[in-house]
Amino acid sequence: MAEKINVGSKVFSSKIGAILAAAGSAVGLGNVWRFPTETGANGGAAFILIYVLFMLVLGVPVMVTEFAIGRHGHKDVKHSFESMAGGRKGWRWMGLFPVVAGFLVLSYYAVVAGWTLYYAYEAGINGFAGKDAAQYAADFEQFSSNPYLPTLWMAVIVMMTCGIVALGVQKGIERGSKIMMPILFIFIIILVGCSLSLPGAEKGLTFLLRPDFSKVTGATVLSAMGQAFFSLSVGICCLCTYACYFRKDVNLFKDGLSVASIDTLVALCSGFIIFPAVYSISGLEPNAGPSLVFITLPNVFQTVFGGMPALAYTFSLIFYLLLVMAALTSSISMLEMSAAYFHEEHRISRPMSAFLVSTVCLVLGTMCSLSFGIWSDVKIFSLGFFDLFDFLVAKLMMPIGSFLMCIFVGWVVDENIVRNELTNEGTITTWLYPVWRFIVRYIAPVLIFLIFVNELGVFDFLKK
After folding, report:
1. Is the pLDDT of residue 101 over 50?
2. CA-based radius of gyration for the chain
3. Which of 339, 294, 272, 222 is nearest to 40 (CA)?
4. For the residues of 323-380, what is the DSSP string, one character each?
5. Are 263 and 433 in contact (CB under 8 A)?
6. Residue 50: what pLDDT?
7. Where are the domains of the chain?
8. What's the confidence (pLDDT) of residue 51?
9. How many CA atoms within 13 Å lie on the side-chain side of 82?
10. Least confident of 24-38, 283-297, 442-456
11. How buried is 308 (Cβ within 10 angstroms: 0-12 exposed, 13-18 middle, 19+ buried)?
12. Is 15-463 in CATH node 1.20.1740?
């Protein structure tokens, strides 16, 4: 007999709310500054085709695996793993893995999110006007190494995130997603339209979309595989946490495909925004990471729209507000992972749980922020705090967590439990279930292992 649908305050009240929240968790800064550059450097449309393939055979199946664990438990991630593990005590510890990851990932992610908020403020006061390329680079270096300002903006992001999580699942996370995600989409549409109207925009589109199969190598395949994997932020259980609040009538396969589609669309649109603008300036080459967003693009916006100050101001402001929205929707899920655990496990009120986790993240985030400045000489295993946390999460926790989840659900958990969860107690008949099960048992673990060793530099010789 199917379980009665829980419509209480601890579930998303609507299917669209669940999708937008999960999509907000997946869509982050990496969609903006990594995907377009990886695409352009690895064969354009050829890379996109490989990326979409890996999104379908790796990203979505692992995401659905997280969904199944989370919804089965209907509490926090720790209890969800315990519920699915049953009497298999050797696997119950996996539920604590995301709790630790939540602290680490939010601590360093909030630093970069704080940078985006500061740059949105700078755009709002027209602080980019009248500068040259060297000044943008110097400004970013001076700001990121400042002992106070980046920490302050990081704290603002953490407290904004805390405020939303403290309001609860429906009034905080779901309502926030329903507000921020549509605004993010509107900003994207405006910026894509403006960017495609620029002179020379076709050069940027050619860079991004022209299929160049001569650039497709083993390194290209590994890059596309990694992009599909990291883009959805699987492995650290952000999406598993949100699935704890899914209603029992949600089709996990459809929602997984919807989230992956939104994530890919945002990544593609980011390319449509960035590269037509970059290629409108003769001789300027795109780069990746923070230098693209905080050094190259302010220069691009002011140069391209130099004769139209009002348009330069508007474009810059909307772009950095877009980044803030993307960063904030992701940081909410990061905080929720740990806060939900303390709320459920230790019976602490949700506002107090959010506050306690935020306080720890503020301390750790301050350490990460200062590692760009006065603590730059403080190293652990030759890594500063920011790089250390990034290494632990991206190169270790995400691939190892995903690998173990696939083994856990594919080989350890009773198949009847898994089948009932993914078919909604047999009410959904789908050919996707046997395909998903085959992938999770045999294909995904191999691909995740390849990503893991690639992130550790084992395959660097392919890039030469």
Report:
1. yes
2. 22
3. 272
4. HHHHHHHHHHHHHHHHHHHHHHHS---HHHHHHHHHHHHHHHHHHHHHTTTTTTT--B
5. no
6. 93
7. 15-463
8. 93
9. 11
10. 283-297
11. exposed
12. yes
